[in-house]
Structures are given as C-alpha cells and as structure tokens.
Amino acid sequence: MAQLNVDEFVERFRDRASAVKERGIPPLEGESRRQWIASAENDYMDYSLIGRAEWSVDDDALVLRISLSDDSP
User: Fold this and answer.
1) In a domain, 31, yes or no
2) How far is 34 from 58, CA to CA, in rounded Å?
3) pTM of the model
4) CA nearest to 52, candidates 24, 30, 23, 73
5) pLDDT tens for each residue of the chain, 73 residues long
C-alpha cells in the first residue's frame, strides 16, 4: 500500500480547485448548460474546502479541519 502524504493530498485539491475555476464552459445550451455550471460550482467548492484544510492525525484517524470563514487561506 502506498504511503499517504497528506500535504500532497491537500495540494492536489488546491490544484483541482484552480483547474475548475480556470476551465471554460463547453458549448452547451439550456438545461445542460445550467447543470454543467452547477456541477462546476460544486466541484470548486468541494475541492477548495479540502484544499484549505489543516490536518492532524488523532487516534489513527486523519482529521481535516476546515475553516468556514472567508478570511481563511
């Protein structure tokens, strides 16, 4: 089993958040376009939350602490 490098794991989520924010919208119309945009917004939120998490290991569990304030890194 591969070793988990949590700093690299969190960084990959930061990179994914940036990629979602920078990608263009494909040529979709109507409901398909709205669904694609909603999915991209959810992807960005999910990735950016994990990407700014602080982490620790408590009782053999990886704990991600995510600040919900706007001024967090």
Assistant:
1) yes
2) 41
3) 0.78
4) 73
5) 578 899 999 999 999 999 999 999 999 999 999 999 999 999 999 999 999 999 999 999 999 999 988 665 5
Count how many Cα atoms sit within 13 Å of the Cα of residue 28 in the half-sphere of its side chain: 12
Contact 59, 25 (CB under 8 A): no
Measured CA distances, 9 to 30, 37, 70 (Å)? 36, 25, 22
CB neighbourhood size of 66 (10 A): 13
Q: Name the domain count of the chain.
A: 1
Cβ neighbour number for residue 36 with a 10 Å cutoff: 13
Paired tokens of 43: 């992807």
Nearest to 54 by CA among 67, 69, 70, 65: 65
Whether 58 is in a domain gets the answer: yes
